[in-house]
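COMPLEX REQUEST
Ligand: flavin-adenine dinucleotide
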Amino acid sequence: MFQVIAARQLSDAVFEMTVDAPAVARKAAAGQFFILRADEHGERVPFTFSDWSADEGWIRFVFMRVGVTTHKLSHMAAGDSLADLAGPLGNATVVGGLGRVAVVGGGVGAAVAYPVARAMCAAGDRVTVILGARTAGLLILREEFEALPLEGLVIVTDDGSEGVKGLVTHPLKETCEQRAVDHVMAIGPAIMMKFCAATTREYGVPTTVSLNPIMVDGTGMCGACRVTVGGQTKFGCVDGPDFDGHLVDFEELMSRQRVYVDDERSADAEYSRGCSCRV
Amino acid sequence: MPERAPLERIADFAEVNLGYSDQDALAEAERCLQCRDPKCSEGCPVGVDIKSFIARILEGDAAGSIEVIKERGPLPAVCGRVCPQEEQCEASCVLARTGEPVAIGRLERYVADHDLAGALEHRCRPAADEPTGRRVAVIGSGPAGLACAGELACRGHEVTVFESLHVPGGVLVYGIPEFRLPKEIVASEIEMLHQIGVKIVTDAVIGSIHTVQELLDEEGFDAAFIGIGAGLPVFLGIPGENLNGVYSSNEFLTRVNLMRAHEFPKSDTPVWRGRKVAVLGGGNVAMDAARTALRLGAEEAFLIYRRTEDEMPARREELRHARAEGVDFRMLCAPSEIVGRDGFVTGIVVTRMELGEPDSSGRRAPVCVVGSEFEIECDTVIVAIGTRPNATLGKAAPAVGLDRRGYVVTDDDGATDLPGVYAGGDIVTGSATVILAMGAGKRAARSIDGWLASRG
Ligand SMILES: Cc1cc2nc3c(=O)[nH]c(=O)nc-3n(C[C@H](O)[C@H](O)[C@H](O)COP(=O)(O)OP(=O)(O)OC[C@H]3O[C@@H](n4cnc5c(N)ncnc54)[C@H](O)[C@@H]3O)c2cc1C
Ligand SMILES: Cc1cc2nc3c(=O)[nH]c(=O)nc-3n(C[C@H](O)[C@H](O)[C@H](O)COP(=O)(O)OP(=O)(O)OC[C@H]3O[C@@H](n4cnc5c(N)ncnc54)[C@H](O)[C@@H]3O)c2cc1C
Ligand code: SF4
Ligand code: SF4
Ligand code: FES
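STATUS: Structure written out below.
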């Protein structure tokens, strides 16, 4: 059992959880993820570290409530326990020697972008962060980003309720046009990463994306996480999660993410019926 | 052995074989000739003293019988069910020359099940040797790791098993279905290991939390055994293989066996329940996948295999069971493309094959019949064509010597080229059998014991 040390709600459907997991925390690195099971009936579900402390033995992650597992997690509080937690999985994001980097974080992707931007700063890269959200209320971890030694922090909201109105691809395009960037790291929903990669391709700026295919074991045993990169099949969990965004088949990724939608919807409806929170 | 009727058994996941009654077992044991020079034991990869254990059954001494088996065979309730006996012990029985060999596997299962039904404290092996104060790390809790751990614990060493999944047992829990090997049995064998002091840490991915070298250098272990299996699924590399509805057998079976997707939504893990399921392959794994698909409600499950039934590597009993349950065999067909609509599988294109001249292995190699492609309608494809070394090996033990195909190289005693590091099971041999993996784990345990002793 893995004990929840702290849990808080960051925005409407976004939560942050800190869990006691000393063995995992000791080896965690930016860009890596872990797999948890909420309870004994739980699915194995991957989340990326948003922070960790090797010394204090905890890991932290930010999640959006989208289905049964994240719904269960959203009700947990300090003192509760997760049935299982295994990691760190996947390869760490390559940092250092990149020069000027634009790190784009969309939605909960911002939480994943945070340790990546932090590691890049620490490794001597010059980092500009572009944070995107649908609306001001959904922006997360802004203070944490502000505390980093960034070259710039650009906030973008779809409805203009905070920062620039529009999509993250607008400031990204400008940065590319001004030749102000040597590398782009895009983390967020598949559709956002797809458009970021399409934007940077025009300018030939190398672009890394952090993919989130459906997984089961996370150790290369099942192949659920297959993604096509440069015409070749890769396993997201052991070959990634970071890949060259210009080579990823995003259409396939998005299609594969939808394979269980009907089941997921009915399962969440069923769970919600028995749940007092009425989301 | 009595078995449940096909139509009844495909409605659930309960065990197909029912096991012997006392009378059946006695009658079968009486068929044994108690040969002066028993050939049967030579056919068993771990050399179980078959003649003696059968003699104990005849004497009504079940407890004595299980002791005889356990001297050599670590998990008899498992082996009695899943060993390919018809190629091993039973193939070597003298009676096989003239007729039916003694049903050794079934008798082994009978004795083991009786034992499992007894109180746990009576089942444990006699008290372990004096504690040696030596600590051994076992990586992977499949049959190789479990057998190694048990043997080391009996020799007085302190053993910790590290397992990356949330349940120990390896393929015994995530691969082989409940209807062939009830998970309770595996759990009960594992409980026995706990009783003799083996510590099992689940959710522990070696290579992630520690490397093997760190276990030895920093975590205070004196030796390590690598038993991580050959779990990486192989795909065909044909177009359409990443469509929704295409599974590796590992994923499909794991969703059901380990994650209990057949109980969805009580269990949170879903599985795509196809109506027409095509399984590619002809081994035990393919049979398990097809039979599992039927139990999930498929109207049709068929195997697509390049050669003929004679060449299928699956156990004859599995073939027979699969056929009786309605699995259809499409022989001499090679898949060339999976087709789909809106991202989901709708069919598979296959090419007809003919058996040509015998190849180097003596088997007649299949050759394509030009222009014979045709499409078979299906909404699920399960690829069961084999596996490769577990993908975590590179991070867990980057320095260990590997062969050309990426498997760990060991000597006959299971020693790798790294001091204090041993290996066994599928990660050394490639995908093989439960009993070979157990044998390798046990053998390595003995050499680890010797190595620790030699270091004083
Ligand atoms: C490497 C990786 C890192 C991730 N990091 C984060 C993160 O930091 N924060 C976050 O909010 N989300 C993250 N995700 C996505 C997260 O795993 C899914 O949101 C989660 O599975 C939803 O589970 P659910 O039961 O609540 O919803 P469900 O209703 O089960 O699923 C909703 C959607 O989530 C995806 N999904 C479902 N099951 C899985 C699965 N087993 N593996 C992966 N995706 C699945 C599918 O696209 C599905 O349509 C990550 C995914 C991957 C692969
Ligand atoms: C579907 C199926 C049906 C089969 N049917 C039969 C049968 O009827 N009869 C028969 O004799 N054989 C059968 N086999 C083959 C048999 O199961 C295997 O040969 C045997 O399980 C190999 O044992 P092992 O201990 O080497 O590896 P495995 O059983 O594969 O166990 C390896 C374990 O190591 C864990 N692991 C991997 N990497 C790490 C890591 N880095 N850190 C920690 N843990 C790790 C894995 O999670 C796994 O639990 C079947 C196989 C399959 C897949
Ligand atoms: S362990 Fe397997 S091969 Fe050996 S006697 Fe038992 S069933 Fe036969
Ligand atoms: S070879 Fe057959 S008949 Fe002879 S002892 Fe062994 S099991 Fe009995
Ligand atoms: S999640 Fe199973 S292989 Fe990647």
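REMARKS: The mean pLDDT of chain B is 92. Chain B touches chain A at residues 164-166, 174, 202-205, 208-210, 231-233, 235, 237, 241-242, 244-245, 247-248, 250-251, 254-255, 259-260, 264-270, 272, 343-344, 390-392 (CB under 8 Å).
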